[in-house]
Design a protein that fits this description.
With 591 residues, the protein is mostly helical. Among the domains are: 144 residues, no CATH class; 128 residues, Beta-Lactamase (2-Layer Sandwich). The chain contains 28 helices and 5 strands. It has a 5-stranded antiparallel sheet, sandwiched between helices. A hairpin with a 2-residue loop joins strand 4 and strand 5. Helix 2 packs antiparallel against helix 3, helix 2 runs parallel beside helix 4 and helix 10 runs antiparallel to helix 11.
């Protein structure tokens, strides 16, 4: 910390003792401004050193407004330190003080901070809620409004809701340009470029990237320069198929990486671009080996920023899968499997749920080509669970659909296993390209057309496997004892498959089975069709049963006496079943 600031802090302590509060607060404001400068430079240690000492002096003075704004500063510094829980805690604390003071501008700043933290934590729905609350406050400052709209756009981008993302970033950009907020102008331009790239609109993406680059160069902001040029390299390679243009942008990256020699992000983006250009050029074996070494160099280097690292792993996976396809050398799998585990590890450390989902999809595809079908299904179940936990509903729907398709293709995969199909045949059926194509903007993530399932049977089975309650939806299952008995006979093996292997669904003939254990009971749902909506309805039914003590207690009583409960014994259960399972798209879900 500079001596001048040490002197300032000493002076403030002296002024506090002399009860010269106004003078002390004026100097503290300047100290906080310096701490904000450190934050802008990424100098966390220096910023925290000043901000924490400043906080202790605000506490001595007892100036609540100063304390609250200092807490906002600390929250942003701890976010930069990636201590998101501390950042959220400071946000909550500042919000309480601002609300007590009825200081609405401060309230909007606290809500923005809490939205920002939740975005970094991958908690997207809470992030949206906080950001919208911040934007709803009339007294919000232009800076906070611009930042809230921008982060809201980023959140929708990660959720795959590109039109919503675009609307918010365009609003943020308009205000940022009017107020000459250069940093947010370049951030919004770059983000809008990414949105258009994922939409597959190369020309508009380039237009926004280039505008962003001009300002980033003026501001001498290495991270923004690296991000935009890196995106332009990938766009030129994969959307435009223009290697000469990609080389031009990557040469600019090389020049900037030499100018800012200590900036590892720029270096990694340049190396990544170099490797991808080599791979895309249809290079000979020797050059492909060079590209492989470059990607490995990025991965083995200390992680400065997760994006080049994640891209390097994914493209190295793609490279190795191509090698596997061409050579049929199964030893390549010994390198692929740990590589994907590293990808999953870094995505968990950096709170990157979308990349976690992509890692699970890659794991599932690798499980398939190794003919490990249970593992492939398990990874899909885990991927969908991660997507749902982090409000990535569009991705959850796509994964659920992929899982349904895999169950339909099981006989085909079993045939490939018996005939000892080549790796090329397996890789083609596993469709690896779809994951990479979405990442590059060659294929837009299309929402799944949601279709209601055909409900067949709902069961509650007591611990030990005895029937406790049944509700057949179709006449056929109501009166065909052989059908019903056949399913009950198969129940234990179905239950073992679901619970021992961690799956969320299995096939029973042409039907799909969902099952969940709660207390002494196993809830079971048999249906035909898509699983996504069926699972939402099934989960809602179980939740409501647990909340309705009259129903749950009746089930407990019948369990203790080993009796089968009829509809007349639980009169409120049929209306509940009809309400939930007859709805077109459940109001309670996130479809």
């Amino acid at each position: 910390m500079p001596d001048s600031k040490s002197d300032d802090l000493t002076l403030v302590e002296k002024l506090v003792l002399e009860n010269k509060t106004d003078e002390a607060l004026e100097i503290l404001g300047k100290i906080d401004s310096k701490a904000w400068e450190y934050w802008g430079e990424g100098s966390v240690k220096e910023g925290l050193n000043l901000a924490l000492k400043s906080k202790s002096l605000y506490d001595k003075i007892g100036n609540k407004l100063g304390i609250a704004y200092n807490l906002i500063l600390l929250g942003h510094l701890f976010i930069l330190k990636t201590d998101y829980d501390a950042g959220l805690s400071y946000g909550r604390e500042s919000l309480e003080i601002f609300e007590e003071l009825n200081h609405q501008e401060g309230v909007s700043s606290s809500l923005y901070l809490m939205g920002l933290v939740n975005n970094f934590k991958g908690k997207y729905d809470p992030a949206i809620e906080f950001l919208k609350r911040s934007l709803s406050i009339k007294e919000i400052s232009p800076e906070t409004k611009v930042a809230s709209l921008y982060v809201l756009g980023v959140v929708y981008f990660w959720k795959g809701e590109l039109d919503q993302a675009l609307r918010n970033c365009e609003k943020s950009l308009k205000i940022a340009e009017a107020k000459d907020l250069k940093v947010h102008v370049t951030l919004n331009l770059s983000q809008i470029g990414e949105i258009y790239q994922l939409k597959g609109d190369s020309e508009r993406a380039k237009e926004y990237y280039k505008r962003s680059l001009l300002i980033a160069e003026e501001q001498e902001h290495p991270m923004s320069i690296g991000n935009v040029l890196g995106s332009l390299v990938m766009l030129s390679i994969y959307l435009d198929d223009n290697l000469e243009e990609a080389k031009k942008y990557n040469e600019q990256l090389r020049v900037f990486s030499e100018k800012y020699k200590t900036d590892k992000y720029l270096i990694h983006r340049y190396l990544l671009g170099k490797a991808l250009i080599i791979l895309r050029s249809g290079a000979r074996s020797q050059e492909r080996a060079e590209a492989e070494l470059i990607l490995k160099k990025i991965i083995e280097d200390r992680i400065y920023h997760p994006i080049p690292y994640i891209y390097a792993i994914i493209y190295l996976c793609e490279f190795l899968i191509e090698e596997l396809k061409m050579t049929n050398d199964i030893r390549i799998l010994d390198e692929l499997n740990p590589l994907v585990n590293r990808l999953l590890n870094i995505t968990e450390i950096t709170h990157s749920p979308l990349w976690q989902v992509i890692a699970k999809l890659i794991q599932s595809k690798l499980g398939l080509i190794q003919m490990e079908f249970s593992r492939a299904k398990l990874f899909l179940s885990q991927g969908q669970q991660i997507a749902e936990e982090h409000d990535l509903q569009m991705f959850a729907q796509v994964i659920s659909n992929d899982h349904d398709q895999l169950l339909e293709q099981e006989d085909m995969w079993e045939h490939l296993k018996k005939t000892k199909a080549s790796m090329a045949e397996r890789i083609n059926l596993a469709s690896f390209d779809g994951i990479i194509a979405h990442m590059e903007g060659r294929r837009v993530l299309e929402p799944v057309e949601l279709v209601d399932e055909q409900s067949i049977l709902l069961l509650i089975i007591a611990e030990g496997g005895s029937l406790l309650f049944s509700y057949p939806f179709s006449e056929e299952w109501k009166f065909d004892d052989e059908l019903f008995g056949g399913f009950l006979t198969a129940f234990n093996s179905i239950s073992d498959e679901i619970f021992s292997e961690g799956l969320d669904r299995v096939k029973f003939g042409k039907q799909t089975v969902l099952m969940e254990n709660v207390a002494n009971f196993s809830f079971c749902y048999l249906f035909k069709g898509q699983t996504y909506l069926a699972k939402q309805k099934f989960d809602e039914f179980i939740k409501r049963i647990q909340e309705l003590t009259s129903i749950f207690q009746t089930l407990e009583n019948y369990y203790k006496t080993s009796q089968v409960a009829e509809l007349t014994d639980i009169p409120s259960i049929e209306p509940l079943i009809q309400e939930i399972f007859s709805s077109r798209i459940p109001k309670f879900g996130k479809a």
